[in-house]
Each structure stands twice: as structure tokens, then as C-alpha cells.
# Entry
Amino acid sequence: MINNNTMLSNRNLMTIKWLTYLMFMMFAMTTDAVGEIIRVVMKQFDLSMTSAGLLHYGPMTAIALGGIMLGFMADRFGRKTTIIVGLSLFALNSLLFIVGNSFGFFLMLLMISGLAIGIFKTAALALIGDISTSTKEHTSTMNMVEGFFGVGAILGTFLVSYLLSAQVEWKYLYVVAAVLSLILIGISLLVKYPASKVSQEEPVNLARTLKMLKDPYALGFSFAAFLYVAVESAIYVWMPTLLEKYEGNLLLVATYSLSIFFFLRAGGRFLGAFILSRFNWSGAMVLFSAAIFLCFLFSIIGGVGVAVLLLPLSGLFMSVLYPTINSKGISCFPKSSHGAVAGVILFFTAAGAAFGPLTMGAASDAFGKDPLVGFILATVFAGVLLAGTVFNALYSPTAARLKKLDESEY
# Structure
């Protein structure tokens, strides 16, 4: 079988990789800065934690629906077309932030933004399979992509803080994102994409995507993604609120806790790309998920004084998990189905990102707006995720399927 990479020049292939990296960086600037935005919006509109959290739950729900209902577009219409459509919708919608100033208006735009992300992210995830030469390289590349996602989270959080300190409204973050999207659209129009495989066995449509919900591999990795993101989003949505009243000797750490978390997560993902290209992925998953669980557990036991150190530190251990879950889940299917399965996993990813903080916010509100109560729930999610990685390491349920697809697809 001739690999698609042989049909592309090295320069063109590198351009495609950087385009993918920058796409993830750009939309992370908006999605992962939401914790800082929620903190401001709660005061601006006098909202409860549950209500303000709609700025996170809403777009995550839209990303979930976009992933599962429109993920097939990448397989049917091609990666390039789907990416351009999604980025165009995202850019236009982001520019509209400057014309309104109400909570309902912001929520509506964020949900449209989520739908656009669901479209171009599934295509970008499918594209990674097209430019990879093995399932192992796929995982390593996914970690690099998520590393740039981590960089975007850092930039977005920094930009929101800078805008607020300069007495400029946070919504101008989306104007910056719109400009970056237009640049990426220009690059996408000029670059030549690798040819993607098209399924000849059945129609490429929503019904085909929904059939994947019966596949145990798709469901297993999707549930793992759900749990992981429920844990991760606890940090960037509610940690700023949890540490807002910290008054100990580590006040500087508390002030920049989210930035520290994002720095560790981004750096760890670049390190993860190196580790996973050389060591067994299932063992690494157990090690890092155990470390996350312990960070959350001891934060609950020790209270805010311990959480100020351990919760930001958890970013280093989270770095490897999601890109590996995503990569191995997608790699368990032929390349002609990568868009659809990426959409399924994205659905559960975004559902976890909505469900986790929503239930945490509701639990916290029920106990006097105490964010620590919500983190008890997040610790339970982390424990279930750890159990799943241990099962995977002990029984290796995907080994045979990954080996078969390595030989037939790459």
C-alpha cells in the first residue's frame, strides 16, 4: 500500500502539520480561558455558579452535537473543505462578540462557536491519521497537537487577564481568535492536502456515525475521554473560584494557579510525544492517571492550603492522557472512518466537559457555594478513570485490533 505522505512534498506535509497545530492552539485560546471569564461574568451579571457555568456547558454541548451529528462531513466532503467551512463559521461568529453586551447574547454566540469547533476539529483529528505512518506515530503526533492546544490555553488565559487589567472587555479575545481563524483559512486554501480514503462499503452519513455507538472500542475510548475531560475541566472552570479566597503564604501561586496548570499541561504534552514514541502507552496511562487521582484526593483531604499546590501540579500528569485516549480510539478504525469516530469521541469529550463542571457547580451551590464540594465529585471521576486504565493495562483489549490496522492502513 502506498502511503499518502509519499505523494506530498516534505514542505507541504510540514505546512499541514503546522496548520493543524495552530488550529488547536487558536480555539484553545477561547475554550480554556472560560474559567477566568466565568469569574468576571458571575460578578457582572450577579449569577450563581451553575448559571455562570452555562458559558462553559453551552458551547461544550454544541461541540458535542457538532462532533456526533456533523463528524461524517470530514469523511464525505474531505478534510480540507470541512476545515474551511468550520473555520469560516467560527471566524464570523467570533467577530459578532463586539456588537452585544448581554449574558444571553454571549451564550448564544458561544454555542454557535462550539458548533463550528465541532466541525473543524473532527476534520483536523481525521487529518492526523492521513499524515501518520503508523498508529504509534499517530499517538505521538496527537500529543504534539495537544501540546499546541495547551499553548493556546496559556495564551488565552494571559490575554483575558491582560485585557481586564487594561480595562478592556474580555470579549475582545474572540476578535483576536477571529483574525487568527482568517489567517488559517488562507493557509488552508493554498496548501495541498493528502488524499483521504473514502469508504466504498456503506454511505458516509450520520446513520453510519451513530452505528459506531454500538462498537465497544468506540464506546470504551469515548467513556475514557468523558471521564478525563470531566476531571480536567474541573481545574480550568472551577479552580480559579476555589482558590479565590486563599490567604496563605503561597498567594502568588494561587493568583497564577491556572497559568501554572496550563504551562505544566502544555510542557507535559510535548514531553508525552517523546515518551509515547518510545515506551508502552498503556503503562504510561496507569502511572499518570494514578498521579492525577492522588493530586485530587489529597487536595480534598488537605483543603485549599494543599489544593493550591496539587491542583496546578495535576496538569503535568494530565498532559499525556487525553491525546493518547483520542489517538488510540481513532486508530482502532480504518482511515476512511476517522472523521466519524473522531466525532463520536469528540461528542463524549464535550459531554464530559459540560457534565463535569455542571454537576460540580450544582453540588457546590447546594452546600453554600463551596467549590471544594464540587472537587469531591471530580475526585470520584478521577478514581473511575484510574480503574479503567488499570483494566486496559492488564487485559490489552485493543492490541490485536491496533496491530491489524497498523498493517492494513499505514
In short: The chain has a mean pLDDT of 87. Residues 135-165 form the longest helix (31 residues). The chain has one domain: 4-195+204-409.
